[in-house]
Amino acid sequence: AWPRLISNQLTVWTHYTTSTNIRGDFSFYGNTSGLGVLRPLTVPGFLSEGSFHDYLPETHRLLNKDYRKLESNNFYRYFCDYFQANLPSTGIIAGFAKSSNEKMNNPLYIYKAFTHDEKVPINGAKVKLMNQNGDSLNVYYVDTLYNGIFAFYNLAPGTYKLHLEAKDYQPKDTTVTVTAASTTYAKMFLPNLNVVIPKDTTPDYPDPIQEAGVLPMKHYNFGDQEVVVPEWLNQQPIKKVLYRDEKLYVLTTEPKITIYNAQSLALVSDIAFTSDGYLLACNKDTISLPENKGRYFKVYTWDNDSVAPSLLFKTQQQANWSNGIMGETFAVSGPRWKCTIYVPSVTTGSSKAIRIVGYLYEEGNALGYKYMLDAANYTE
Predict the structure, then answer these.
(1) pTM for this one?
(2) Concatenated DSSP letters for 22-49?
């Protein structure tokens, strides 16, 4: 079934697009018991995980009935291959309508970078199907569920024309060729006429074409910084700091090692600065599934060095372990008002497997959440 299923060009394949990855329930799980969903069957059974609805752009595609029907057609063609039955004599045209100059900007709509999923789907677009002479054959109206999907079925092999139009967008025409028992894809990108690209005279938009020979400065003046040394360091400059078992091991230039009880640091496990200079800190705690209402991973922030911290956010999302130890360390990318927090989540079992969690925080919006699944390759 692999060649049929991998032919879907409307999704974004994150793995195995250049090499075959065929696995059955025996080879995948390494045993002969089979999957529970297949064991009780009295007829041949087939299982495919072709889509994952926790990837938000795919969620929106799966809301479209024709997108699901296109996958069904791939299965049907595979069954014809397997049972050596006659394949259909007609073909399909399928595609999507997306903006060519707008990117999705919503913390809940997390997409794979540098793919077509970063482009805004055009809700309500009108797709007109014509024959080679330009005679109208059918019209498809794209839904308003942010997927841009359209499809035309049962088409005789030959050449067809498509005309795509939508309010505020520049229309587009294209020509496609239909072959029997296959799907021809038309991925159409239209510019939004209301999007104005700033001229290169705008102060914050430099000319992308620069003269040859531009060199960086020899040094940059970042201003004077005041260094405050805690009293327990006895005024000795720090050379290196290690954290282990709730303690700080501080090597100074004396040389001397000071062991400091990190538990007294107001339950803070790690600290980091945002790109706009705000201090953040996280706690360390074990978050369970089902969610324990009293246990949270928390991120704190300070407006300046002289004020008490405030809670930036708290969450019980912890990478889907039965118990996940959160907050041993963390990293931050971006400014405080819109930043990504990366933190490992470690199992409490003997394997100590790790999944990397990413929280997308944006002021005034819901907290975005993703985690890296490949725990087998990441251990404590």
Answers:
(1) 0.55
(2) ---HHHHHTSSS--TTTTT-SS------
